[in-house]
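Feature request disguised as a bug: please show the residue count (216) next to Phosphoribosylglycinamide formyltransferase in the output. Example input:
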Amino acid sequence: MAKLRLGVMISGSGTNLQALIDACSGPDYPAEIMVVISNRPGVRGLERAEQAGLKAVTIDHKAYEDKETFEDALHDCLSEHNVELVCLAGFMRLLTSGFVNRWRDRMINIHPSLLPSYKGLHTHARALEDGVRFAGCTIHYVRPEMDNGPIIMQAAIPIDADETEESLIAKTLTYEHKMYPAAVKLIAQGKVRVAGNKVAFKDTDMGDTGIISPLP
Ligand SMILES: Nc1nc2c(c(=O)[nH]1)N[C@@H](CN(C=O)c1ccc(C(=O)N[C@@H](CCC(=O)O)C(=O)O)cc1)CN2
Ligand SMILES: NCC(=O)N[C@@H]1O[C@H](COP(=O)([O-])[O-])[C@@H](O)[C@H]1O
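Example output, currently without the count:
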């Protein structure tokens, strides 16, 4: 069976990209990265892609007069590489509904909170500020409305008494790095389908819950 063709879009350090690179190096992993795109030049994630021998492309949003022409360049690059699934991994630009609908149900995102709680930015600090006992991370299909798409997988992460923003960011990333390859694997195996604004699973051993806690 052909491997699912991934396009990974980043804006920064790329540790989630690295988790996907490492997973894709496994001979039986059902997906492969065709191109890595960053909207910011010179970021660590691009180095990770080059070190892995992958096509690394910078499409700098600042170089385009508007979002539409920027997103046309993203779309053309993804299409050129026959990408079947776009993985947003720390991609920090809000995409227009035009772009999102072109890639509807073929684009997923990882977000560092237990959605629908803490949409947007600074999720860890906000969770600590509110004194919640669990933080988390979520993988979802992307919809025009920010952080509002059908949820594929979540991890609930206990917040320790002496937790700091830095320690929570680091702890959350350890869950993200397990969850992203697991979610892509399920999609590549055809075990995930979108049913309205929710996701349903086919013959998975996760009991149709999509929860990763404790880590696999
Ligand atoms: N249409 C959508 N676009 C994006 C989504 C989405 O769900 N729908 N997810 C994001 C990722 N993301 C949260 O997971 C997110 C990214 C960026 C922002 C944001 O406010 N960005 C600012 C610029 C910030 C910067 O460049 O550093 C902006 O775009 O003005 C919020 C949430 C990816 N896109
Ligand atoms: N709203 C989107 C967002 O905040 N994404 C978050 O950015 C970080 C990127 O780290 P990475 O570049 O090391 O993968 C990750 O924690 C990811 O969940």
